[in-house]
Amino acid sequence: MLATGKAKIQVSMSAYLRLTAFVEIESKWFGFGIKDATAGLKLEGGLDLSCDISVDGELRLVRPV
User: Fold this and answer.
1) What is the pLDDT of residue 23?
2) What single DSSP character describes residue 28?
3) pLDDT tens digits, one per residue of 35-53
4) What one-character-per-residue DSSP string does 8-23 give?
């Protein structure tokens, strides 16, 4: 364990998820009927994590009693 007179630790984390549903329809020539149809889901996401540590003073090893 390390001890000091003044220490500051900041941790921040952000995450996002995006779910998109889509339908694609391809019609036949002259607009009579459907040639092809596709439906699906698309999932996108990300995670950002940062840690900032600042110490003002002297670090020293503290031994448990």
Assistant:
1) 92
2) P
3) 888 999 999 999 888 877 7
4) EEEEEEEEEEEEEEEE
Q: What is the DSSP letter of 57?
A: S
Q: What is the DSSP letter of 30?
A: G
Is the pLDDT confidence value at 9 over 90? no
Length of the chain (residues) = 65
Q: Does any domain span residue 64?
A: no
> Which amino acid is located at 11 in the chain?
V
Q: Domain count for the chain, please give it.
A: 1
32, amino acid identity: F
CA pair distance 16, 19, nearest whole angstrom: 10
With a cut of 80, say whether residue 17 has pLDDT above it: yes
Would you say residue 53 lies in a domain? Answer: yes
Residue numbers of the domain that contains 47: 2-57
63: in domain: no
